[in-house]
Amino acid sequence: MNTGTETAQRAARLALVGALLLVGLWVAHGFVPALLWAVVLTIAVDPLHLKLRAWLHGTHPVVIPLIITLLAALIVLVPLAFGVTQALREAHDIVSWIGQAQAQGVPVPEWVARLPFGADAVRSWWQTHLARPEDAAEQLRMLSGSEWLTHSRTIGANVAHRAVVFGFTLLTLFFVLRDRDALLAQGRRAVLKLFGLTGERVGTQAIRSVRGTIDGLVLVGLAVGAIMAVIYLVAGVPHPLLLGGVTAIAAMIPFGAPVVFGLAAVLLLIQGSVVGAVVVVAVGAAIIFVADHFIRPAMIGGATQLPFIWVLIGILGGVETLGLLGLFIGPAVMAVLVMLWREFLAPSPVSPALEQTPEDTTH
Which pLDDT value is given to residue 174? Predict the structure, then answer.
């Protein structure tokens, strides 16, 4: 009877815990991305955190987490503010150009005749869709009037949501850094109790993968953006610093950077600089080739012993499933799966009894 009662109580406790977990996830599901971002950022800045703790030994435990959180906020907000400022400066001219184009049409510009190929096709399309006022008004309808107001409201709501998630991410980052040691100890005890040593190896591999992915994507992307900003400046691309920042962000996503320096090449062609456009495309392609085929595989795969094809699958699949957060979660999942697969295929240790020969057993 006691055994049956204990079994029923254990089942009831498990059901209660499962129900509470589901309710908790339902309540907090809107903040799960912020929590995951905070974990990724914590893994990224943890080496800096430890160095600052050793350097500023004896300071209040809140000071260093606060400094790192403020630095993280500035790294995101300063480039964003710069981009918004540049966009606002251009907004008035763009609105004026749209109004003039709808009223008078847009004549075929002179740079079309200077295109190295496809000039006739571009001229024909332009005359059909933009040269006359009514055609230009139809093509630019989405950029003005009530349509633009509707889209701006949607964009504003999305920006507000992103701002709330970003703020909560920074808040979570601060508390995770402040309580780092206690959280690590609790997490290690929980993992060992639930999954044993395999769970600890999984956690270590996931952390190593996230850190390697950050080094391979973020640092390499920033380097690509800095180099391309110099190329843009030399070639005469408009707003080279802003476009270099966009290139850095796009370079963190596979196949993203070529879109940006392709756009820069188009801007140079519009200005009539064919040589500059060729230089931008050639240098950009060479940099991306070196980064994607040599530097990133060494940095990401070297940290986790993960073939780069699985890194690429993790990145692309993660981005498709989780958005920008998937850049870091996807490779970590792939690294853990490959590690478990290798452990499964590893030869099992043979016990001494099985190693004995038949002759040994007869003596």
Answer: 94
Tokens of 335: 């690294």
Q: Maximum Cα–Cα distance for the chain, whole Å?
A: 106
Q: Give per-residue pLDDT as tens, 332-351.
A: 888 888 888 888 887 765 54
Q: Which two tokens stand for residue 355?
A: 């190693």
363 CB-side CA count, 13 A: 4
Which single residue is written with the structure tokens 């509707």?
Answer: 150
Q: Is the dihedral of CA 250, 252, 256, 257 positive or negative?
A: positive
Distance CA 68, CA 174 (A): 8
User: Across residues 248-263, what is the average pLDDT?
Assistant: 87
Strands (E), 101-144: none
Q: How would you classify residue 272: left for phi > 0, otherwise alpha for psi between -120 and 50, otherwise beta? A: left
pLDDT band at residue 140 under the 50/70/90 scheme: low
The pLDDT value given to residue 287: 93
Task: Output the pLDDT for position 303.
Answer: 65
Tokens of 253: 């996503």
Check if the beta carbon of residue 40 is closer than 8 Å to that of residue 210. Answer: yes
Radius of gyration of the chain (CA): 28
Whether residue 330 contacts residue 322, with contact meaning beta carbons closer than 8 Å, is answered with: yes
Helices H, strands E: what count in the chain?
A: 18, 0
Burial code (b: 16+ CB inside 10 Å, e: under 16) for 35-64 equals: ebbbbbbbbbbbeebeebbeeeeeeeeeeb
Reported pTM: 0.73
Within its chain, how far is the Cα of 322 from the centroid? 10
Which uninterrupted H or E stretch holds 37? Answer: helix 32-55
